[in-house]
Every structure is written in C-alpha cells, then in structure tokens.
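Entry — protein

Goal — fold tokens:
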Amino acid sequence: MRSNGRAFQRLQSCIPRAFVLSEFRSGDLPAALTVHPMLLTFLAQAAPAAPAGSGIIGLLPIVFIFVIGYYVMIRPQMRRSKEQARVVSALKTGDDVITASGIHGRITNVKETTVMVKVADNVKLEMEKSAITNVLKLVESEK
C-alpha cells in the first residue's frame, strides 16, 4: 500500500502514537495500520465546513412539527372543551340529554354541579353536569 508524502504526513498527525513506528521506510505504512484500512480512510477525510446559519435551518423542521401538532391536536381539543363547557353551562330543566355513558333522559332539576335526569317513569338519576355530552334539539312540531 503506497501513499504520497503530504497525505501520509497528514495521516500520521492523526494517528495515535501507539500506532506510529519509527522504523518504516518513506511511503510504507506501519504493520499495525494495514490491519484496519477503513480506519485510514476515515482519518484521511477532512470534515466538511459547516455553512453559516445551519443551526437555525436545522431547527426549522422541529419547529414545523410542533406547529403542525398544535393545529392538528391541541387546538381542536381546546375547541371541543370550550363547546362542552358552553353546553354544560346552558343546561336547563326540560332539556333532553345524552350522558357520557349513553343514557338518554330529560333534565328535571338543575343544581350547581349536578343535574337530576329522568330516564323512565319513577326513575331519576342524579349525575354531574360534566357527564352530559349532548343536548338533543326538539323539532318545532313536537313542542
């Protein structure tokens, strides 16, 4: 394995002293280095210079992912929460509702944090307002 003088000097400065033998002829590589030719290839390559502003450009994909995540996950959830809070605050006696567990009924009494829901004749359930998921709209002809 032969090498030109300049590349060999550059390579020799990168090699740890344990690998450098003082008794080799010019252009010949030490016997210890011929075992690992890939090591020589990696050491002989110069690191590319980093372009100016690469730190900011490197962060843009991460920022972009967070912005997309905000608009896809966080913002719709905040809208749903506000809508649910609006529905819960507007509950009144006589509303037909559906609970989170799927029970259909009519509100008979509204308290500060709970409501009384009539689900059948002589069957009333007291539950938290937050358990109400939907308020059913009555058609004008049914009133």
DSSP finds four helices and five strands in the chain. The first helix runs from residue 5 to 14. Strands lie at 96-99, 104-110, 114-120, 123-128, 132-136. Residues 116 and 126 are 4 Å apart (CA to CA).
